[in-house]
Amino acid sequence: MKELLKKYENKTPEIVFNWKDSETEAEGWVVINSLRGGAAGGGTRMRKGLDMNEVLSLAKTMEIKFTVSGPAIGGAKSGINFDPKDPRKKGVLERWYGAVSPLLKSYYGTGGDLNVDEIHEVIPITEESGVWHPQEGVFNGHFKPTEADKINRIGQLRQGVIKVIENPDFSPSVSKKYTIADMITGFGVAEAVKQYYNIYGGDVKGKRAVVQGFGNVGAAAAFYLSQMGAKIVGIIDIAGGLINEDGFTFEEITELFLAKTGNTLIADNLIPFEEINKNIWALKTEIFAPCAASRLITIHQIDEMIDSGLEIISCGANVPFADKEIFFGPIMEHTDYKVSLIPDFISNCGMARVFAYFMERKVQMTDEAIFKDTSNIIRQALEKVHNKNKSKTEISATAFEIALNQLL
């Protein structure tokens, strides 16, 4: 696996598009790792200090994710080095999408990512640049549908991603109107835990869980884990955190979900970050869902959790470990060797899978069908791993080997 990984990491990307804004200091890159299957896909992120290497590593990550979620295309990513809080952001995005629109018409599909909103920014701004939908390039390059078929499938994709969830089983509040895009990634993180216990033995019910991050992904993962009967004993967020060693009730987790503002945990009894960051890792817990930023978790934190009975990690964040390596650094390898570690490209593939699902010919548009499809994809990926390696450890190494053999 290590040889395969090295070969994959060192492979030069097929296309690197570099852009410098004419009106601000913003600089952007599209990195297309490969045009496997005639197209490539990956979202657009914006943050101050972003560089081309970050975009490249994310493009390679997307390509691995597509081996699980489909479609069978190459990985890509867009990144803009600019402060997303700057009032000039909209203008930057308009000029950026104007510059990359030929790629988006031909063979590249994008979406929202860190600090760039799919529904309020990507879709309307790409439309202004003459792109029918941010995934149009994937339709044209990979699926090559007739014009009529393309119109139907783009309509299906557009409607599906922003579909308001009506089934109360999948939403913390039917009156507050949450969309598929709001909930599906966190659902996948929780579902990966459930499917893991189904395949490897055991039951999620009654297991204690710690969730890191309480944005869209972390809050949804906590909601679904709690709904499955897991006991959330700790939540850590940038603003602080909460601990309840008996586990929060499902009603309490739902209230916390509804109370959050944006991506921030809100609670009267919030423990300051410095304090919770010292204490949360030693809590008795079997499940850990890292759903905050990438490259945060240290080896010391992991070892504390392992000593406290940790069984499984389901990654909501891409590369959650504080390793320098693109994929499989020493902290991740150490963790994979000690506990069941479900890699991000399986556990957080929900959104990529939703795109793939709606790009297919006419599909069912019900909440049940959409969520069940993501659940099935995650189950199938874990079954493939289990067929190759029955052990509860080195799950990530096995999953990478399966993916890389498809790509190299």
TrEMBL record:
Keywords: Oxidoreductase. Residues 181-408 form the Glutamate/phenylalanine/leucine/valine/L-tryptophan dehydrogenase C-terminal domain. InterPro entries: Aminoacid_DH-like_N_sf (IPR046346), Glu/Leu/Phe/Val/Trp_DH (IPR006095), Glu/Leu/Phe/Val/Trp_DH_C (IPR006096), Glu/Leu/Phe/Val/Trp_DH_dimer (IPR006097), NAD(P)-bd_dom_sf (IPR036291). SUPFAM superfamilies: Aminoacid dehydrogenase-like, N-terminal domain, NAD(P)-binding Rossmann-fold domains. The keyword Oxidoreductase applies. One of its GO terms (molecular function) is glutamate dehydrogenase (NAD+) activity. It comes from the Bacteria. Belongs to the Glu/Leu/Phe/Val dehydrogenases family. Pfam families: ELFV_dehydrog, ELFV_dehydrog_N. One of its GO terms (biological process) is L-glutamate catabolic process. This is Amino acid dehydrogenase.
